[in-house]
Amino acid sequence: MSESVLVLRLAGPMQSWGVSSKFNVRETEGQPTKSGVIGLLAAAQGRRRSDDIEDLLQLRLGVRVDQPGRLQRDYHTVSDYRGVPLPSSGTNAKGQQRSTSPKKYTHVTKRYYLADAVFVAALEGSEDLLATLAAAVRRPAFPLALGRRSCVPAQPLVVPDADQILWPGGLDTVLAQVPWQASAWRVRRATGPTVTLPVVTDDPAGSELAGDVPTSFEPGSRVMRSRPVRSAWVEVPTGVPADGARGHDPFELLGG
Question: What CATH number has the domain spanning 3-69+117-254?
């Protein structure tokens, strides 16, 4: 069965790709995690949290950072609508959560997001599976999210190759071929004919580890395992001539 590559453009006002964050501090990685991308694909297909995802985990993932975005912290408070004290993280002998002592009625939580970021996520695998996934992403069964349910992706997500949905060739080749997906304002600020972008790909011989592979999405048995990855750089055309000359843009000085 032939191998192909499905390319997704992951962009939106806010993204948050957590791995091990719990309780009152919810952090984000600097780029999409394998758990987050696989979760998006599973949601598109209408899979439940208890459904098997082993076929999706076999897909080889590569992520290219086209626009890193800005780290933002969101301030939250949590209270019980019944006006009762909040539970603590500790439990009693019966396994029930204890109340906070002294009683606490409001928790302050910190949640981190990436604002105005754009990523290219490429998945290499069998053509049949990827074609099914592409169709699901274009007409998803469940709402899609960029890491957290509150982070809605911009459309369209699927980046086609000319007249076909999937890209031929290997993952590394495709990540160097996909046009720069940065926002229009970022492209206007390019000063040279190419831009150098960081890439992280699944690689059995990789010297780094990413602990973001889920064994399951079922809340009671969600455990992450590691995957070997390799970091690299690719050069992608910006559309700016080599001499830096470009057409007149009356809005360029406004920085929009």
Answer: 3.30.70.2660
